[in-house]
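2024-03-11 09:14:02 DEBUG pipeline.ingest accepted 1 chain
2024-03-11 09:14:02 DEBUG pipeline.ingest length=151
2024-03-11 09:14:03 DEBUG pipeline.predict start
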Amino acid sequence: MPEDKDVYRDTWARYLGYSNEIGESFRVIAPVKLVRASYGLAFAYVLADTADKGMRMLVKDGRPRNVMIATGDALLWQTLASIVIPGITINRICAYSSRALAKYQKIPGLARSCLTVGIGLASIPVIVVPIDLGVTALMNVTYRRWIPTDD
């Protein structure tokens, strides 16, 4: 794998950060423990990427301040891009879909629930890139501007 390729952000592994969105999509028909477990997997991914970015900076630079800044950057970026924003987004997409489908009483309840799950799951690939780009832009005008590393 090329050295400049980030396994946590530039490969299929990025989708592990979206495991909680799968849980959110299934919330309407799954036990709450399953939804919580999906958040556990997503947080494990976030922490793995955070540790990776901290270790890379430690090897590359070694200065404690820069290591902490890189670690904080990764933790903040991943928390926003993998947990908070997509979790709220899919939760709301599913809630609004369920509410809209409830108007169609001819569709059986289980079918409406399955449609809600399908809508949530289908939304995940659509939201990944815009959220990642949006969080990067947000980080560039806030954290990364306010707390630059020592060059």
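2024-03-11 09:14:41 DEBUG pipeline.report Residues 12-146 form one domain.
2024-03-11 09:14:41 DEBUG pipeline.predict end
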